[in-house]
Design a protein that fits this description.
Layout: H1 3-36, H2 41-64, H3 73-90, H4 92-109, H5 112-129
Helix pairs in contact: 1-2, 1-5, 4-5
């Protein structure tokens, strides 16, 4: 495999791993915030999104897209936050829809206690099917 193609494949693989790790981190954070700490599902979801975004930024900057002369972290972080805010504004309706499904699931299953009993995999499966 040529050097450039190999480098691209490696970077793409890292990008995919970061995406999976980001999704898992966000789901785990939401489960912890809501099921374990009793935080309102909407606040828990938004907080988990922030946790996942920070983790995704750091992994992307220091592992996926590493190269000499990256520049200072602050301008990159501000750009990342700006893009994230635009994304959140554009997907506000989708986020509300997902929260509605999450609330419906919790109501059907008896609240946070059911989420604790079923664990994260059950929540993920139920939200995907609902």
């Amino acid at each position: 495999m040529p050097q450039a193609r190999r480098a691209f494949a490696l970077q793409f693989g890292r990008f995919a791993v970061v995406g999976l790790a980001n999704t898992a981190t966000t789901y785990i954070a939401m489960w912890l915030f809501h099921a374990k700490l009793g935080i309102d599902v909407e606040v828990a979801g938004r907080s988990a999104y922030v946790v996942g975004a920070i983790q995704g930024f750091l992994l992307s900057r220091y592992w996926t897209f590493t190269h000499a002369g990256q520049g200072a972290v602050a301008p990159q972080a501000l750009g990342f936050i700006g893009i994230g805010l635009v994304d959140r504004a554009g997907s506000h309706t989708q986020h509300g829809h997902a929260l509605q499904h999450g609330r419906h699931f919790l109501q059907r299953r008896g609240g946070a206690e059911a989420v604790q009993a079923q664990g994260l995999a059950g929540l993920d499966h139920r939200l995907a099917v609902a």
